[in-house]
Design a protein that fits this description.
Layout (H helix, E strand, L loop, with lengths): L1 E4 L15 E2 L2 H12 L5 E4 L6 H9 L7 E5 L5 H14 L4 E5 L1 H5 L1 H5 L6 E3 L4 H12 L10 E5 L2 E4 L25 E2 L2 E2 L2 E2 L11 H4 L4 E2 L2 H15 L3 E4 L8 H12 L8 E6 L6 H10 L1 E9 L3 H6 L6 H14 L2 E8 L6 H14 L3 E6 L7 H8 L16 H4 L17 H16 L2 H9 L14 H6 L1 H20 L5
Parallel strand pairs: 1-3, 1-4, 2-9, 4-5, 5-6, 10-13, 13-14, 14-15, 15-16, 16-17
Antiparallel strand pairs: 6-7, 7-8, 11-12
Helix pairs in contact: 1-6, 8-9, 9-10, 13-16, 16-19
Length: 491
């Protein structure tokens, strides 16, 4: 099987030159599970491959028929996946096209409306996909497999959901050796899956579910040591949805790190919820090398916080940020503008809160109702869902990254607000919080702080190469800022 990580190079616009290329984690685990099972699976990653069709043509020369092309698809890359899959079906008409990932899991009817797509794998795919591949290669029926959607006699059939992988320790470790291309940033670890909370905007639960599972601390420390020893990684970001749900296992990991050869030689970042903040745990984390934490604050309004079902309060977020900074953490947060019932005053409150708390790194995103989320259903019910083409306007960072002369319409604007007003508030927010020498210096000189979401180059040569795109980026941002300053105020 050829596994394709669908990606649109336009997703991050002018910021693309300054963003690290992250390993497609889901694809990596699928590769590991397939190889352990003796299945020949190869990856084509559109993030780093300019001509995927020619790479695929090279691969199929050494593969047996029927060819299977599996697409891992998020909403932002849906158009790219559809376009490439159409071309593949034209070139290899007897091939089987399989779609999986967050978007197909949430919108399998929509995906299977394309007749060239044969199967959708819903949810966690490590076990389902291997069985599907065997059935296809042996030319046996696969319609009995759980977690699949497909067409039968012109009708779309959805089999019952596949089983949640309850024990992550029975899964093979992540195959970092398959991602030795220098383009990739390898500083990450996944130590848990699932999130037990109910945020209306989060699409991650579509594949991983609400059931929270975690790996043993022993297997996690082995992976950290592997990254340090074999790949020279010195800073690791835990990409868990919420790293500190289970405090007992985190304390165990802390003890293991302190007794390992990476203690004092590696640093770490993680995401956490404010209501999971524990001063003793966070102090122990900091003393072990955990230097950065990311809290999703989302809003400065307590009423909006209830609407989005975050399950925590603004006051809890404020207390957690203050306490984490007092311990010494670099604190990152994100706000979402354009949530239901939100007002211009609420957005201005986010600016004031960011300044008062002196948050180290802040992002301001526009609300995006991804398929499968409650926000999607709300937008649909309000008749305010706006889908352009193949979800080409479903980008939560579009305001800051898009061409200022060719704006993409928002996918959702709540009643009482305007798209122009939200755009203006996002730009004003970035200007108010980021336009200081102290912050810009940190951003440009310490790329590993926080999530490392902006990288102007680590070596002198890399920095020099990025001077031209940096000027372009600066020019684009200047145009956006001037546009926001001189536009009429609009809610």
């Amino acid at each position: 099987m050829i596994l394709i990580n669908s990606s649109s190079k336009k997703t991050m616009g002018v910021f693309s030159s300054f963003l690290p290329v992250y390993v497609p984690v889901g694809c990596g685990y699928l590769l590991a599970a397939a190889h352990e099972d003796g299945i020949d699976m190869r990856l084509v990653d559109e993030q780093i491959v300019d001509d995927p069709l020619s790479v695929i043509k090279t691969h199929v020369k050494t593969m047996s028929k029927p060819y299977i092309f599996g697409f891992s698809v998020v909403t932002a890359a849906y158009k790219s996946a559809i376009e490439l899959s159409i071309k593949l079906k034209e070139v290899y008409p007897e091939s089987i096209i399989v779609f999986g990932g967050i978007h197909p899991s949430a919108a399998s009817d929509e995906v299977l409306a394309y007749e060239h797509i044969d199967v959708v794998v819903r949810g966690e795919a490590e076990k389902i996909l291997n069985d599907l591949i065997r059935c296809i290669k042996e030319r046996k029926p696969y319609t009995h497999l759980d977690g699949l959607s497909y067409r039968e006699n012109g009708n779309i059939i959805h089999n019952k959901p596949g089983p949640i992988i309850k024990d992550l320790n029975n899964m093979p470790g992540f195959p970092y050796h398959l991602f030795d291309d220098k383009s990739y940033h390898l500083g990450f670890v996944v130590s848990s899956r699932g999130c037990p909370y109910n945020c209306i905007f989060c699409s991650n639960r579509i594949t991983t579910g609400k059931f929270y599972r975690y790996r043993t601390s022993e297997s996690t420390i082995e992976e950290l040591e592997l990254l340090f020893r074999d790949y020279g990684v010195k800073h690791v970001y835990f990409v868990d949805d919420n790293f500190v749900v289970n405090k007992k296992r985190v304390f165990k990991l802390i003890d293991l790190i302190k007794n390992s050869n990476i203690f004092g030689r590696m640093t770490f970042s993680f995401q956490g919820r404010a209501d999971n903040f524990d001063p003793n745990l966070f102090k122990a984390l900091y003393d072990t090398g955990f230097t950065s934490v990311d809290f999703g604050m989302e809003t400065a309004s307590e009423s909006v916080m209830k609407i989005i079902k975050k399950g925590e309060t603004v006051a809890e977020c404020v207390d957690a940020v203050k306490a984490a900074k007092e311990i010494g953490f670099h604190v990152s947060t994100s706000f979402i503008y354009g949530l239901p019932t939100e007002t211009h005053e609420d957005r201005m409150g986010a600016i004031e809160l960011s300044k008062q708390l002196d948050i180290d790194s802040v992002k301001f995103n526009n609300a995006t109702p991804f398929p499968g989320t409650e926000l999607y259903e709300i937008a649909k019910k309000e008749k305010r869902l706006n889908i352009k083409g193949l979800y080409e306007n479903f980008n939560s960072v579009s305001t800051i990254i898009e061409n200022p002369f060719k704006k993409n319409p928002f996918s959702y604007v709540p009643q009482g607000s305007t798209e122009q007003g939200i755009r203006r508030d996002i730009i004003i927010s970035y200007m108010s919080v980021w336009f200081s020498w102290k912050r810009m210096k940190k951003l440009l000189t310490n790329p590993s702080e926080g999530q490392g979401w902006f990288n102007a180059g680590e070596s002198f040569v890399e920095k020099i190469k990025k001077v031209p795109p940096l000027f372009l980026l600066g020019g684009v941002l200047m145009i956006k800022c001037l546009g926001a300053l001189f536009s009429k105020e609009s809610q």
